[in-house]
Amino acid sequence: MKNTFIFIFCIYTICINSQSFTARYSMRCTMFEDGKINNENTKKQFESIFANNVKEILFDLVYKKNKLSFFHQNDGLSSNEMNTIDLSIIKAKNLGLFYTDIENGVVKNEREDFGKYFIVEDSIKSIKWIITNDEKNIGDFQCMKAIYNTTVTLNQDIGQTTIKPKTVIAWFCPKLPYSAGPLGYTGLPGLIIELNDDLFVYTLKKITYTEDGNLTLPKKGRIISRKNYISEYNKLFDTNEYENMPEELKVKK
Q: pTM of the entire structure?
């Protein structure tokens, strides 16, 4: 009986690992939700400058044999016609393509920053999830909550950066036993149905199973480690900020 169970489990695992599917996610900005801006005057000022999810932004996660790619699906992302800035569109453009190889523990992010192209490599092993007892239903899926505490480097001004704590929240479905999710996040015993990453939330809209998915691979850009990319980005940020300053202010602090 024990050997029979092991055999069935192995067959089930092989089927799961060989399964291909495309999961479509929508993204929304939560800047004006949940009291994230406490000052009402500041909130009104921001609302007059930034649009709030004027256009639905869609992403596809393609999964095939423990490899996955994640990228936005909207053709020709453009700003809305109003005199405001749509943060979701800006975010989608900046994210680029994520390609994850689960077996080799690597995630690659193909992206453009200040006219320079990079393929940023990172290890998925550094993601340490804390699975909680919290549960909720998202659509037809019963999900569990997982938390990942990390840090983010922010550029404040020329030559000035700061490191702040960041909490990523994932709601995953154990009944969909695929260790996959938006933005290259993996490592959970179930597909991520909803991901709360800073000011943006990614929510699964539908999942379509296929016999053979077409992965999108990173091709354009210089391969660079995450650590070196952060240093390179800071230099590009400083150069861009300095070049766009009024001439009378071009004196580095």
A: 0.81
Q: CB-side exposure of 205: number of CA atoms within 13 Å?
A: 14
- By the 8 A CB rule, do 111 and 79 touch? no
Q: Is 190 left (phi over 0), alpha (psi -120 to 50) or beta?
A: left
Pairing of β 116-123 and β 222-225: parallel
Count of C-beta atoms within a 10 Å radius of residue 126 = 12
Distance CA 70, CA 78 (A): 20
The answer to whether 37 touches 52, Cβ cutoff 8 Å, is no
Residues 14-56 pLDDT 10s? 344 448 999 999 998 887 676 666 666 666 666 665 666 556 7
CA distance 189 to 180: 9
Which pLDDT tens digit goes with each residue over 136-189?
999 999 999 999 999 888 776 777 788 889 999 999 999 999 999 999 999 999
